[in-house]
Design goal:
Strand order of the largest sheet: 1-2-3-4-5-6-7
Order of helices and strands: HEHEHEHEHEHEHEHEEEEEEHEE
Number of strands: 15
Shape: globular
Amino acid sequence: MIEMAGGFERLRPHIKTHKMAEMIRLQLALGINKFKCATLAEAEMAAAAGAGDILLAYQPVGPNVDRFLKLSAHFASVRFSCLADNAGSIGNLSDAAARASTRVEVLLDLDIGQHRTGINPDKSALDLYRLIASLPALTPGGLHAYDGHIHNTDVTERTAACEAAYAPVEVLRRQIEHAGLPVPRIVAGGTPTFPMHARREGVECSPGTCVFWDAGYAQTLADLDFLPAAVLLSRVVSKPAANHLCLDLGHKAVASEMPHPRVVFLELTDAKPVMHSEEHLVVETSQADKFAVGDCLHGLPWHICPTVALHDEGVVVGKGRAGRGWKVAARGRTIAV
């Protein structure tokens, strides 16, 4: 059980996993009103579903600057914020906001080990935060520290890695506050480090994968007791050889950026991938004779987030019966804005 001081007020779940308005509404009904997203389409979907506080965990650049401002103006009652990690982008965002006669809340994006985006939490970060605070069209919104590189299977090792990565963030926070500037929030972590950040006072946690869970985290993060809530329905489309089944679960149906196994079948405990192409997955299994062409199989994807983005909708199943579909509304790059 993960306990959080402050409860749902400190939850800012990442919606990149599900991209569904219905899921936003379920979370709103539980009292969750803060969300984190990766794309403007996700931000628009969340705002239209009723979210009140949305962090675009991405640095707007190019035409996305004006799109972000347009989105903020369209949903004027929603509190939008975004990330930035360099003086040029901060200046461009401020200039665009000034032209639009608005203000933008900006969180400084910190690199605490993943080396994907962000700035090291050192004096340069303090100078950038001062820059955000000094520009008339921007408001400093705090710090963003994503530790996506930490996914140790051993919880003790994961905790130690998380503490080491986060320590400079706390130092920077104190330096910023000593300089007389506000740090309204720190948004930290993902699903693997959710339990560690949940124990910190004043830190917003942004797990995403846990809403559906997947086979990858289920195998590597045994300390987290989330249950799978999404499976892939596949059918046998051919039996090309003895002990072989060909399934309609190609690259276009299940995330394929990971090594195999990319899906774990509930009915086939010994399935071994033989080949994987755009439309087909061939597996070898001693249970092949039990299945005929057209039979169904159910599989847990190894990586749920990009798998969801491959499908137009998810079908809600209850008591063994398929019900209505939930549109994966934010799988596209744009909705209206």
